[in-house]
């Protein structure tokens, strides 16, 4: 019960926290057999949280680091949320880790017998970066263990997928998730080969498939790649009020763009014009969004919603405000930054529901409940109003050096095409 309540709340709150979610390939997740979802891991607890919430209505078990299960109350809550501990060598003494993992593998086998979905991050830890790190072989070994427990008919499908965030450490970024086709251990087993060769080949192939579903950037290329990706987003605009997009087209455009830079020479024309373009943007105190004219409907939307949505934002913003203050002061690991930021905002959202609805019902009855619901969700139009204002200011600054900026942007587009 707690799991589904949290899952539903996360789905609602994600509409405030994220600007947009792109999700594709969910048809590649088998429905009638055990499934291992395998992904890159760049953003701490929020990675598994969002995947579990977005795969609806299927429930998802998630492997997480075992040391967070140490306290009795934490163990109860985390297991209620369908999390499974996995103990790494650095998480404690070898015997305790081994005993803990054996219990987790027993649970995994029980879950797979019921054809459930389990999410694992084969990189083993999270790092805020747009690149895939070497995968550990633990997942493949688990599959061999599951299929050797006397159930020869068990086939575990491994579904590689990519998790992609347009930005880190701030709300109103965009999340892109893309699932690849499933692979099976049996496809890598040969009559004259060993299990070790099979799970090495499976691990390598899963890594390659994850890379094809994610924006993978070489070390040192982050800034120049981001400049190009912002242009891609500007060229492939999505209606401002559209939140859920069931297409891979935008993600694929970003993947193709990142790959062009990845495989280009260090002194290529593409890199040169991208650097010149970004320097010109910085010098003009504007951004890529300023390249587009402000439409009449944007002015109209802003005029209609700015006052009522501002009032809503005065109430709903405090979760994000205190979350930002907390993570800036306390969180030392970048990979946990956004998870805690998101979590504090989610907790505040719970407070608004638990306090706001009863009070409004007490004073205004059913109309109070309806009114409080509408009032809270007016914070979403406020986000759009902020983006429209940022667009207006960026466009105003752009016009001061429009000739130079338009020329440089045209050169970048020609190189990217």
Topology, pairings included?
Blueprint: H1 2-17, E1 20-24, E2 35-39, H2 45-54, E3 60-65, H3 72-80, E4 83-86, H4 94-113, E5 117-120, H5 138-147, E6 157-165, E7 174-179, H6 195-212, H7 222-235, E8 244-245, H8 249-262, H9 269-283, H10 296-330, H11 334-364, H12 366-377, H13 379-400, H14 402-416
How many individual helices?
Answer: 14
Number of separate structural domains? 3
CATH superfamily of the largest domain: Glycerol-3-phosphate (1)-acyltransferase
- The neighbouring-strand order within the major sheet is 4-3-5-2-6-7-1-8
Q: Fraction of residues in helices?
A: 55-70%
Q: Roughly how many Å apart are the termini? A: 50 Å
**What composes the largest sheet?**
8 strands, mixed
Number of separate strands: 8
Task: Classify the fold: give the CATH topology of the largest domain.
Answer: Glycerol-3-phosphate (1)-acyltransferase
Strand portion, in percent? Answer: 5-15%
Based on Cα principal axes, name the global outline: globular
Averaged pLDDT, please? Answer: 89
CATH level-1 class of the largest domain? Alpha Beta
Could you provide a short overview of the structure?
The protein is α/β, with parallel strands linked by helices and 417 residues long. The chain contains 14 helices and eight strands. It has helices at 2-17, 45-54, 72-80, 94-113, 138-147, 195-212, 222-235, 249-262, 269-283, 296-330, 334-364, 366-377, 379-400, 402-416; strands spanning 20-24, 35-39, 60-65, 83-86, 117-120, 157-165, 174-179, 244-245.
């Amino acid at each position: 019960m707690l799991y589904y309540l949290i899952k539903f709340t996360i789905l609602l709150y994600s509409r405030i926290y994220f600007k947009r979610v792109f999700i594709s390939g969910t048809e590649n997740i088998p429905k009638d057999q055990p499934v291992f979802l395998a992904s890159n891991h760049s953003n701490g607890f929020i990675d598994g949280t969002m995947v579990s919430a977005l795969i609806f209505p299927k429930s998802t078990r998630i492997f997480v680091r075992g040391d967070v299960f140490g306290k009795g109350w934490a163990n109860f809550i985390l297991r209620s949320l369908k999390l499974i501990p996995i103990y790494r060598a650095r998480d404690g003494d070898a015997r305790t880790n081994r005993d803990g993992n054996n219990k987790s593998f027993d649970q995994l086998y029980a879950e797979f017998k019921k054809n459930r979905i389990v999410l694992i991050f084969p990189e083993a830890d999270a790092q805020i970066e747009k690149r895939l790190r070497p995968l550990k072989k633990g997942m493949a070994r688990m599959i061999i263990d599951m299929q050797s427990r006397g159930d020869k008919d068990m086939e575990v499908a491994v579904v590689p997928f990519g998790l992609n965030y347009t930005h880190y450490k701030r709300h109103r970024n965009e999340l892109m998730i893309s699932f690849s086709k499933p692979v099976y251990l049996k496809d890598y087993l040969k009559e004259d080969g060993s299990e070790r060769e099979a799970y090495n080949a499976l691990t390598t192939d899963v890594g390659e498939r994850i890379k094809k579903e994610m924006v993978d950037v070489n070390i040192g290329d982050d800034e120049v790649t981001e400049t190009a990706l912002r242009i891609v987003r500007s060229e492939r605009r999505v209606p401002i009020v559209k939140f859920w997009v069931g297409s891979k087209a935008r993600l694929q455009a970003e993947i193709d763009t990142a790959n062009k830079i990845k495989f280009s020479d260090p002194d290529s024309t593409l890199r040169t014009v991208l650097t010149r373009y970004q320097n010109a943007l910085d010098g003009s105190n504007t951004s890529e969004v300023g390249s587009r004219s402000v439409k009449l409907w944007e002015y109209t939307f802003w005029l209609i919603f700015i006052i009522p949505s501002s009032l809503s934002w005065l109430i709903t913003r405090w979760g994000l405000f205190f979350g930002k203050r907390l993570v800036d002061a306390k969180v030392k690991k970048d990979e946990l930054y956004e998870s805690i930021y998101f979590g504090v905002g989610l907790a505040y959202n719970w407070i608004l529901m638990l306090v706001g609805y009863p009070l409004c019902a007490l004073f205004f009855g059913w109309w109070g409940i309806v009114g409080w619901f509408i009032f809270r969700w007016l914070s979403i139009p406020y986000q759009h109003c902020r983006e429209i204002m940022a667009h207006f200011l960026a466009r105003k600054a752009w016009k001061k050096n429009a000739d130079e900026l338009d020329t440089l942007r045209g050169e970048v587009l020609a190189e990217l095409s």
